[in-house]
Predict the structure.
Amino acid sequence: MFNALRPQVSSIIDSNQTPDAKMLAICELLKAEVPHYDWVGFYFKNGEKRELKLGQYAGAPTDHTIIPFGKGICGQVAESNENFVVPDVQAQDNYIACSITVKSEIVVPLFLNGENIGQIDIDSNTSDPFTKADEAFLEFVNFEVAKIL
């Protein structure tokens, strides 16, 4: 599945759309094509503030448009610069609930010139669906997105 999606992601990146439209198209593609991706979004560092701001996403609207560094899974990734896979969100003390249907989450940082400038965040209504293949694919997605930022 992920091997088939890679050229589609690259094609979106190479299109003549704006960067925001490209990121939205990627979110929509991933949500539509990966069965366990129920919410897909990008968060970016909000200027010089120690917080993340929601960018493009596909899925249910969220109240979490600003996330302080260190808070929730996204905020922890902003500080750790490492992928964070949560098989069971109920088991996480520092979790920000977006929806009662979310069972698991994966967050992968997005680097530009070696700096963590944001991340891709995936919520799943399935328990423990994420594998190393998801991580590798999302790292590829972020590598591609960094080309347009």
Notes: The chain has a mean pLDDT of 95. The two ends are 26 Å apart (CA to CA). The chain is about 35% helix and 25% strand. The longest strand covers residues 115-124.
